Amino acid sequence: MKVAIVHEWLTNMGGSERVISVFHEIFPEAPIYTTLFEPEKIDLPLRNADIRTSFLQRLPKPLRKHQRLLPFMPYAFEQFDLSEYDLVISSSHACAKGVLTRADALHVCYCYTPMRYAWDMYHDYIAPLKGLKRWFAIWQLHEIRIWDQTNAQRVDRFISISQSVAKRIKKHYSADSKVIAPPVNVARFRYMDDREDYYLVVSRLVGYKRVDIAIEACIRLKRKLLVIGIGEEEKRLKALCEGKENWINFLDWQSEEQVVDYLAKAKAFLFPGEEDFGLTMVEALASGCPVIAYGRGGALDILRDEETGILFEEQTVGGMVSAIERFEQLSGQNKMHSPDLLRKNAEKFSIENFKEKFLEVLDCYNME
After folding, report:
1. Is residue 368 part of a domain?
2. Do 160 and 178 touch, CB atoms closer than 8 A?
3. Do 160 and 197 sit in the same domain of this protein?
4. Domain count, the chain
5. pLDDT for 2-37, tens place per residue?
6. Which own/partner contact pairs does 239-248 have at CB distance under 8 Å and 24+ positions apart?
7. How many whole angstroms separate alpha carbon 280 and alpha carbon 300?
8. How many CB atoms lie within 10 A of CB 177?
9. H or E element: which one contains 135?
10. Which residues contact 274 (CB under 8 A, 6 or more apart)?
């Protein structure tokens, strides 16, 4: 059996690139087809894999920004000749699932979400745009939706990362999918029985992450909050804390080792945004750290209310304030899970479990 792996772009090490690393472990001889590749930003051993890029890689480096190249992505993926492969695994949240395969080949798509800026977040995306830029985006995304729905028919089997993504795949592509959560290197994290008196946020500082809710809730309650991350919202978020610096501490970017240390000591992890899954919530549990999260999206696949964390229904400052107060009350009564039990919950999302479940899907097609 000849196997190929297809991924959107390899320009940084995010959650989807860690999934590709695991696929590479399962199929080390399989080439990885992608639009753009920046090896200096990719971890070993994935950096040394057989990476095959599209015509977009030949653009001058200043023009190789995947955010600006979306109109060309469908054409780029359709140009890959995958006719020699029996199994094609696409890793997709945009256009990677649009590759062309042999009629008798199996195409399995590990789908992070249908393109949110083209589907359910379309109006949020175009709202701030003005003039010709707005009209170009409206036309472009209309064409992308038509292409996206059509190319979804090229997939033989969808795998979704959470129940909420499975519902979107059903709605937009009229396709069923099996849910397999993304893999987390649980062994990388540790926990301590004695926690320190601070809450923690680890996030890119962008609008939809709603870090402002966590900040304002901790200011209102006079609770210490550490914020790890950088992004376009950083200036605005810091302005919210003027005169309140004794409660909110911005730590900017931190190394993976430093994040592990902060998670091991935090009182609880705050997750105010809605994500398709939310790897950092699993990383917090692996650190024995309870999670206080907005009860939508991937949080519902990861957490159990008042056991492994607290889920709140209203994505507001008041909603998070009430959740923090409920957490502190239950913690004072020793009704939250111990760090040991939180870690055991996180182990359900281990790399080993991911590999086993993924190979079970292939076994259904007698792929040996």
Report:
1. no
2. yes
3. no
4. 2
5. 999 999 999 998 889 999 999 999 999 999 999 999
6. 240/212, 240/215, 240/216, 241/215, 244/219, 247/218, 247/219, 247/222, 247/223, 248/215, 248/218, 248/219
7. 14
8. 22
9. helix 131-151
10. 208, 294, 296, 297, 299, 315
Is 22 a member of any domain? yes
User: In this structure, what token pair is assigned to residue 22?
Assistant: 């695991």
Structure tokens at 314: 């209203």
What six digits make up the tokens of 269? 């992890």
Report field, pTM of the whole predicted structure over 0.85: yes
Report the CATH number that the domain containing residue 314 is assigned in CATH: 3.40.50.2000
Phi, psi for residue 77 in degrees, rounded to 5: -70, -35
Residues listed for the chain: 368
Residue 276: inside a domain = yes
pLDDT tier, 363 (very low <50, low <70, confident <90, very high otherwise): confident
Whether 250 is covered by a domain: the verdict is yes
Which amino acid belongs to residue 179? V
Instruction: Write the CB contacts of 318 (distance below 8 Å, at least 6 apart in sequence).
Output: none
Higher pLDDT, residue 3 or 338? 3
* CATH code of residue 139: 3.40.50
Residues 6+ apart with CB under 8 A from 204: 229, 230, 231
Domain ranges, residue 153: 3-183+350-363
